[in-house]
Design brief:
The chain is 38% helix and 23% strand. With 273 residues, the chain is of the alpha/beta class. Bound molecules: 2'-monophosphoadenosine-5'-diphosphate. Involved in the biosynthesis of the chorismate, which leads to the biosynthesis of aromatic amino acids. Catalyzes the reversible NADPH linked reduction of 3-dehydroshikimate (DHSA) to yield shikimate (SA).
């Protein structure tokens, strides 16, 4: 039986063992997948030990994705852009690092929800690791423009510059959005919601048939999702589908099989309530 795991801290809340067990059932692949809490100063050693002991693949979550990138000896192009890895596998004497978060977000928005990104005006809230991880896949969908808005303007400016070769990317401070034209898609990649906070956004940001996506999920709608719904957004989603889609892409990297995600999303949705 091949061994897989997700490393994080904290890790108790992780749904990845359930998701990968469901994918394994569907595809008839025999595997073990565990959630392992790694001490903050013990990440590199834990990864090395895991692969030395015959582990076949790792997912990496908060707060180790940047460290995973540093540790990997070879990277996918999308991991290089993200400067972070959430998926690792052995690669000769070294480790291959990929990042499936961005493609997970795109698949959920485009394939699952049917939202349109091509030619859309897109607003991305936040400029931390979560925002960086989705920049390249977003720009590859050819939006009309991508505005990155962050509390700390300088970080948005850095991101915008770094991805300027892929399309029209503009940086704004969170507080100077009132002068913006309305958007077709708004994505929340700030961690504000996790602390029960919400950026104070003008409702003029919501265009006709505006689609609003929060990259986090939980039993209750986030503050950002409530703001969107109260202001008559056309569609509102949390990040549960992104979670399952990024897992499906990791599954593909390890097993070259594409599992059905809809049934797993539905099951998880039921268990959140
Ligand atoms: P992650 O990996 O989740 O992106 P991060 O790299 O620490 O975590 O980034 C957190 C993001 O949430 C940042 O964009 C941060 O804004 P700053 O760069 O100005 O710190 C944003 N954020 C966190 N709390 C926020 C709040 N209360 N209001 C607005 N933005 C917030």
């Amino acid at each position: 039986q091949r061994k897989y795991a997700v490393f994080g801290n904290p890790i108790k809340q992780s749904r990845s063992p359930f998701i990968h067990a469901e994918f394994a059932k569907q595809t008839g692949i025999s595997l073990q997948y565990r959630a392992i809490r790694v001490e903050l100063d013990d990440f590199d050693r834990s990864v090395t030990d895991f692969f030395k002991a015959g582990g076949s693949g790792l997912n990496v979550t908060v707060p180790f994705k940047e460290q995973a990138y540093q540790l990997a000896s070879r990277h996918s192009a999308r991991a290089v852009r993200a400067k972070a890895c959430n998926t690792l596998k052995p690669d000769g004497d070294g480790v291959y690092g990929d990042n499936t978060d961005g493609i997970g977000l795109i698949r959920d928005m485009v394939a699952n929800h049917g939202w349109n990104l091509r030619g859309a005006r897109v607003l991305l809230l936040g400029a931390g690791g979560a925002a960086r991880g989705v920049m390249e896949p977003l720009l590859r969908e050819s939006p009309e423009c991508l505005v990155v808005a962050n509390r700390t303007l300088a970080k948005a400016e850095t991101l915008a510059q770094e991805f300027a070769d892929l399309g029209k990317v503009w940086a704004r401070g969170l507080t100077d959005l009132s002068a913006e034209l309305a958007f077709d898609v708004i994505i929340n990649a700030t961690s504000a919601g996790l602390k029960g906070e919400t950026p104070d956004l003008p409702d003029s940001l919501l265009g006709d048939r505006c689609c609003c996506y929060d990259m986090v999920y939980g039993a209750e709608p986030t503050a950002f999702m409530r703001w969107a719904a109260e202001n008559a957004a056309w569609a509102v989603s949390d990040g549960l589908g992104m979670l399952v889609e990024q897992a499906a892409e990791s599954f593909y990297i390890w097993h070259q099989e594409r599992p059905d995600t809809a049934s797993v999303i539905n099951h998880l949705r039921g268990s959140l309530a």
